[in-house]
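=== RUN LOG ===
request id: a7f3
mode: sequence -> structure
chains: 1
length: 248
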Amino acid sequence: MSSSIHLYLDLLKRTLSGMIQEDPSIPTAWRPESVYNVEQRIAGRDWPLHAHTMIGLDRLDNLQCCTEQVMRDGIQGDFIETGVWRGGACIFMRGVLKAYNARRRTVWVADSFEGFPPEPDWHEDVLLVSQPEQRHLAVSLEEVRHNFKLYGLLDNQVQFLPGWFPKTLPGPVSKLAVLRLDSDLYQSTMDSITPLYPLLQPGGFCIVDDWNVGMCKLAIEEYREHHKITEPIKDIDGHSVYWRKEHA
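=== RESULT ===
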C-alpha cells in the first residue's frame, strides 16, 4: 500500500467514526455516559452522536483488510452491507475502491431505512426492538445518500436496496466478494444471509457485526450448520467475527 492510500484510508476511518471530532456518545441503557471515550470508540462500544458509523476502528480495520485482500487475490464480486445505519461502513468500502481506482465493483447499501421491523416474529427480537434507544437506528435513505456526498463518494458504484430484506434481497446482486451482516435480529440476519451467502465467491469474506447479540449468533450458527459451513470463525474485537469462504 502506498503512503498516500494509507493516509487517506486512515483519515477516512477516523473521520467516519468521529475520532477526529471527538464526537460524544448517545446515552444508552448499557452506556449512560455521553462523553467521548477513545477506547470505547476504537472498540465500537458506543453510539456516536453525529459520526457516520458506530462499528469502531477495530472493525473498520477488519473491513479494510477484507476488502484489500479480495482485490489482491482477484476474487470477483461486489461489496454489500445489510443494515447500514448512517452508512459509514459502506462509505468506507467505497473509499477503499476509490483509493485503489477499482472501477468494476459496486457497493450495495441494503437497509429498510426505517429502523427495525415493527413486529418481529421472535420473542427475543421483540425485546430488543422495544428498547427506547433503538429509535436512533432509523436513518432515512436521504440522510445516508447525503453522507456519501459529504465524502465525495456518491456515484454509480454505490447502489441502494431500500426496504425489508425479504422483498429486496438479493435483488440485482449477482456476485459478492465481501458480505457484511449488521442486522442485529434473528429474522433479519436470516433474511439477509440466506439469499446472499450463495452469491459470496470462494475466497470472499463473510463478516458478522452482531455476534455478541444472542439471536443474531443463533441465526448464523443455524445457517452454518444447515449448509455444512465449516470454515473457522475468527474473532475481530470480542463483538464481531468473520470467516473466509473456501468452498462454493
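=== NOTES ===
Residues 3-244 form a domain with the Rossmann fold fold (CATH 3.40.50.150).
Strands lie at 78-82, 107-111, 158-162, 176-181, 200-208, 234-235, 241-244.
=== END ===
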